[in-house]
Design brief:
By secondary structure, this protein is α/β, with parallel strands linked by helices. The protein contains 13 helices and 14 strands.
Length: 419
């Protein structure tokens, strides 16, 4: 059975991060270490993901070569296609996680406290961040300080690098581009599933949207979060992001805030929703604390704000007499420091689809001239977080549906066959 009409050159990619791993549960850096495997929760979430994707016909399934990704891919495949041979999963080293040999196995907090300057550079300028190795592949002196973990944690990724210095983020982006160049021509007119890692997914999405490596940390990926990328003419340059980091199938309405659960979070809702969509959004956000809302008084749909906030009488409602909300908002963010905000402040922004798209593009460094590559749909919610502490904005999710029980419908996709 084909997943598209014959003659269609476009490619659709469903991109999933692996389920919770043992290192995730312990709060440890994983990198390309292969000692981390799925927890029972990780396996359960992978099966839920498979159930959510059930009915979509995949022409091919690709997985990272690391165990946690392969385990997730097998669990998903077992649900969506029980008769399909797990050996049909195409395993590739190009989709493995970012190589961080000096930090693999170390706790996040330990790295932040022990290597503050290196950590700051990694978070703020990942394209400039490098790790040094001896010529024989051993970690350079001082890179892992006095940690007590066995050195075997670091042997696998290091042997891949005879160099004395390498740039983890740049190396990842190069691998991902090579993957796209090999795979996209092979699957024109098809739908494929990729099961990889948080960092790898960020690089895959970034390269599809033309984002630079310096924005590596601007895209959030949750365990078993689902992303949908379209390539209408089959080329990398035509990439479109339709859905990002969807995890409602795991019982989580909104992705968990990053960087210490503080700063500013914006919930972006396109105006012009139907009465039913507005009511669904209101119920979806009913238990979310919303400190303020922002919309343009010039928008003919601004009355919908009252309906969405019907469960939030304490929310401060603001209206602006201008249409350029994205530019005005970004200017305000640039001139006001949120470094000292020690709690999470959530705001609801209601604007046109184009205005929301421009706001996201400004925040995460997508060329506004390519804004059509970032799809924003009515009746959905997108999340954007400004953590402060000089951390760049984080796109947490796009096009979260408040009603869907499955990811796709035949009327939505047209060319995807639903069994």
């Amino acid at each position: 059975m084909r997943s598209k009409h014959e003659g269609d050159r476009g490619t659709r990619v469903i991109l999933v991060r692996h389920g919770q791993s043992t290192y995730n549960a312990l709060g440890l850096y994983q990198g390309s270490s292969d000692e981390s495997v799925l927890t029972e929760l990780g396996r359960s979430d992978a099966r839920l993901t498979g159930n959510f994707l059930k009915g979509v016909v995949f022409d091919a399934v690709y997985s990272s070569s690391l165990k946690r990704a392969q385990e997730t891919a097998r669990e998903i495949l077992r649900v969506i296609s029980p008769d399909r041979d797990p050996k049909s999963i195409l395993v590739t080293d190009k989709l493995r996680e970012t190589d961080l040999p000096a930090w693999q196995g170390l706790a996040f907090q330990y790295v932040r406290e022990t290597f503050p300057e290196e950590y700051r550079l990694w978070k703020q300028s990942p394209h400039l961040f490098e790790m040094k190795l001896h010529a024989d592949g051993e970690i350079a002196e001082g890179e892992i300080a006095s940690h007590q973990l066995p050195i075997t944690n670091y042997q696998l990724p290091i042997t891949n690098y005879p160099r004395t210095t390498f740039f983890p983020a740049l190396d990842l982006y190069q691998r991902v581009r090579e993957f796209w160049q090999e795979v996209l021509p092979r699957h024109q007119g098809q739908t494929i599933l990729l099961v990889t890692h948080g960092g790898t997914n960020r690089a895959l999405i970034s390269t599809a949207l033309g984002m630079k490596c310096d924005r590596y940390h601007c895209i959030q990926q949750s365990n078993c979060g689902i992303n949908v990328l379209n390539f209408p003419d089959g080329s990398l340059e035509s990439g479109q992001l339709e859905v990002m980091n969807l995890n409602t199938h795991l019982g989580e309405h909104l992705p968990k805030p990053q960087a210490g659960n503080k700063g500013l979070r914006l919930l972006l809702v396109p105006s012009g929703t139907t009465a039913a969509q507005t009511q669904n959004i209101a119920k979806f956000l009913q238990k979310v604390r919303i400190e303020f809302s922002l919309n343009s008084v010039l928008d003919s749909y601004h009355i919908g704000v009252q309906q969405i906030l019907q469960y939030h009488p304490e929310t401060v409602q603001l209206e602006v007499l201008r249409e350029d909300i994205p530019e005005a908002w970004q200017a305000a963010i640039n001139t006001r420091s949120i470094t000292n905000v020690e709690q999470l402040i959530t705001g609801l922004v209601i604007a046109s689809e184009e205005a929301i798209t421009r706001l996201i593009c400004h925040a995460i460094g997508i060329d506004v001239a390519r804004f059509e590559q970032l799809l924003v749909k009515k009746g959905t919610i997108s999340c954007l977080q400004y953590p402060g502490d000089r951390h760049p904005p984080i796109l947490q999710a796009t096009n979260i549906s408040t009603t869907q029980t499955s990811l796709f419908s035949e009327s939505d996709l047209g060319w995807v066959t639903i069994s």
